[in-house]
Amino acid sequence: MTGDERPMLESWPAFHRATLELKCAGLDDAQLRTASAAPSRLTLLGLVQHLAEVERNWFQRVVGGLDVPPVFDDESGYVLDPSRGLGQALAVWRREIVRGREICEGLDPDATGRIAEGPPAGSEVSLRWVFIHLIEEYARHNGHADILRERIDGVTGA
Questions:
Q1: Is-above-0.90 flag for pTM?
Q2: In degrees to the nearest 10, what's the CA dihedral of 94, 67, 60, 58?
Q3: What is the pLDDT of residue 118?
Q4: How many CB atoms sit inside 10 A of residue 144's CB?
Q5: What is the 3-state secondary structure of 23-83?
Q6: Domains and CATH numbers, the chain
Q7: What is the pLDDT of residues 113-143, one digit of tens each?
Q8: 108: exposed, middle or buried (C-beta count within 10 Å: 0-12, 13-18, 19+)?
Q9: What stretch of H or E contains 132?
């Protein structure tokens, strides 16, 4: 809980990524597609897909300045394809994580990128800000994952 900034900025997303995987472990396809509560259609599988989109957006588009298409047909990642199960979604998500690490390797936390789309389009953000935002994004969605998993089979905790 002490040390250099960069390892801390990298370790918290790693912790949250591992937590998301843990929340999905041991469930069958139907359980992974179980929505939280009406009217929401939020699912664990949808969260994995969404966070693959998040990884691509912040590291490839914003930090890397790359013009890359959405990972899935739906830019949010929440829409489920009957032919895509957890194994494929996790493989895609992991690929996005690796690509993001490659882009950020050697960059100073003060390095900047630019938000291309959305209400703050054109805004400059530091890599530090992107890491902090990613931590917030995963923490929020892991809270959703906690509720989803508890609803499915009663499992709680990290």
A1: yes
A2: -100
A3: 78
A4: 19
A5: HHCCCCHHHHCCCCCCCCCCCHHHHHHHHHHHHHHHHHHHHCCCCCCCCCCCCCCCCCCCC
A6: 5-153 (1.20.120.450)
A7: 999 887 788 899 999 999 999 999 999 999 9
A8: exposed
A9: helix 127-153
